[in-house]
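Data deposition worksheet. Section B asks for the primary sequence of the deposited chain exactly as it was used as input, without tags or linkers unless they were present during the calculation. Section C holds the resulting structure in token form. Section D is free text for depositor observations; keep each observation to a single sentence. Incomplete worksheets are returned to the depositor.
Section A, Depositor: J.P.
Section B:
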Amino acid sequence: EDQVVDDDSFRVLFLVSSFQVLRPHDGSETWSTFPRERQRLLDLLVRTNRTVVVLSGDVHYGEIARYSDSIFELTSSGFTETWPCVHHNPYRLANDTIIVDNNYGVVHLRGDDLALELHDATGETRIAHVLDLAT
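Section C:
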């Protein structure tokens, strides 16, 4: 843990998880199923004092969530399977930032801009959020 916190050689930390980290527990698989471990992870991510992007899936829809000004989650899953129900997520950027169709996520880093995108099966960008890493 100290290596991640003390290492100043990176601007953005990407964390990959098979299921969502930020969404609260609602009976389905999320990190919230393990509250102590989730809190330990979130505390670590806050202590990095860097932009953190969690890349997750396993919900059969796509969304972008924000835990704080520097911690985000890009969830993309459902390239072959979709799910009719969408879980409540108080960290979701906005209620209309959900893709229930087949989707995939893309991350672009250009200079000081970090773009988080969700695309549909045709390649069209359906949701995008740009982070300014200079601030």
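Section D:
The two ends are 25 Å apart (CA to CA).
The mean pLDDT is 91.
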